[in-house]
Structure formats: structure tokens, C-alpha cells
Design goal:
Elements lengths: L3 H7 L2 E9 L6 H17 L1 E10 L16 H19 L3 E3 L2 H9 L5 H8 L4 E6 L16 H7 L1 E5 L8 H10 L3 E4 L9 H9 L11 H9 L8
Parallel strand pairs: 1-2, 1-4, 2-3, 4-5, 5-6
Length: 230
Amino acid sequence: MVSNIKTKKNKGKAITLVFGLTADPIHKGHEQVIHNSYTFAEQYGYNIVEFILVPTFQPNLIADKKQPRTAFKHRFAMCKLIADDLNKKFNYQVQVSDIEKVLYDVNNRKSYSFDTLQALNKPNQLFVLSADHFAGRWPKFRKWHRWQELVKRHGLLIHQRPGHGINLTFLKQLKTINHQLFRVKDLPTVEVSSTLLRQQLAKNVRPDNTLLNPIIFQFISKHYLYRPQQ
């Protein structure tokens, strides 16, 4: 539980949350991160002015990640469907930004989260990440472009992810760079991955509604996405 003193201290403080994701496809795990972020804000007395979903355009790949299977326009559209759905149902303030495509068009190079956050330049900006980036003896966050400067300039909101612990020693080191580093814990999580969903969809298996929002499945079906590669 959060102390009343801390809650009163932060009461009404406006923050902007930025969540970068491949969204290939966006799934219930991503939605749960949004829900948990709002729960965190309520517990700590913060006011989320905007929750910005930022689908990647041409990501800088690390840790054996692969380029998105689906065109940016479709991934952006799926994010927009989820944003509109959550805003309507829960009165959230979820927006979707094409900033990474804009930056690519201008700079003609792969996306880096540091540049994305600098370009958005929102007040009291926290970057939303999952625990897998901070797991293990050598967390993969250390491979990110200008990661120390990113932490120094922007706070972090780190969420649980099933099967991934967090290197607490590394988090303590990061807090010496910027004390605006928060760990969201003891809240519900959804054990799912976009890779798993793509595999199911390629076999014409409809994913469970607890893993993939029906409005996203309808969009995927309408646009014939994730069919087996020839």
C-alpha cells in the first residue's frame, strides 16, 4: 500500500506516460499495462494528462528481436482502436502518436526511444517499460541508445511481466541518475506475447478473448493479416 503522506504530496500532479510498443498485434497484455498505469496513478495521487501509445516504425533491434510483420499503418490503426475503446469504457486519456514515422521521414534512420521522447517533449514525462528490459545480470536496457541520458531526462514507469524478474541492484543504480523511477507491482498481469498470437493466427486459430481484444481480431480478419508466409 502507498502511504497517505506520499499520496497527499503528489495529489493532482500532472504526468504524461509514453508507451512504446511494436503492436504486432497489440494485445491484452498491453491493455493491462494501461490499466495498471492508471491504478498506479490513483494510488500515488498522480493525474495522467495523456497516455501516449507510440507504435514503432523502424525499430533499432536488440536481443534477437525481429522487424514487425505488419505494416505501420495497420499497427497504428490497431492501437487507435484500443485507445478509443479504453477511453470510451474507462474515461482514460489514451492517444496514439505516429512520431516515430515522422522522425524516420525526417532523419531517414531507425527509431531510438531517446529521440522519440525528446521529440514528444511532454511535461513530467514518464517512459513506460516492462520488466523484461531490466531482468538478469546484464539487463538489455543497458544496450539501448543513450540509455543513461534517457533516464536522466525522463522518468521511468516499469511494469511487471510474467516470467521476468527485475534486477533490483540495477534499478537502484538508475535511481541515482533520476529518482523519478517507479516500479508497478502486485497488480494483475496477462501472460501473452505478440509472437504467440501471430503463430495462432497463422494456423487459423482464433486467440482467446482474454488474450486478444475481439475488435483487434475483427480488424486482423478484415485486412487478412498474419496469414502464413509463402
